[in-house]
Design goal:
This protein has 104 residues and is an alpha+beta fold. It has a single domain, classed as Alpha-Beta Plaits, CATH 3.30.70. Helices cover 37% and strands 37% of the residues. The chain has a four-stranded antiparallel sheet with strand order 2-3-1-4. The longest helix is centred in the middle third of the chain and has 14 residues, at 58-71. It is elongated. Belongs to the CutA family. GO terms for molecular function: copper ion binding. Pfam families: CutA1. Keywords: Cytoplasm.
Length: 104
């Protein structure tokens, strides 16, 4: 099962996280405050941000990534997929049911 790593500005992170869960593309999204230093269009930026860790199912991952691209305010958002090699069975079962549109 994948976890999708996303960075976002603080004023957009909550909405992105909520939409992904509401639309059942992610079972949950953890939000962690961070500070990012990066180069963009020839300038170095240093800004507050949030890391979003979206837990999802294999079958929903591509749609989740596409939805982040639609929701995100950046032209080139950081969106990276990490495949989780192991987790507990109860968590995996919950995640699968939370992303599947047939269960709550």
């Amino acid at each position: 099962m994948p976890t999708v790593y996303i960075t976002a500005p603080p004023d957009a992170a909550g909405e992105i996280a909520s939409q992904l869960v509401e639309e059942r593309l992610a079972a949950c999204v953890n939000r962690v405050r961070c500070r990012s230093t990066y180069r963009w269009e020839g300038e170095v930026h240093d800004e507050d941000g949030e890391i979003l860790l979206a837990k999802t199912a294999d079958e929903a991952c591509d749609e989740l990534i596409a939805r982040v691209a639609e929701l995100h305010p950046y032209d080139v958002p950081c969106v990276e997929r990490f495949d989780v090699a192991a987790t507990t069975d109860p968590f995996a079962e919950w995640l699968g049911s939370a992303v599947d549109s047939g269960a709550d």
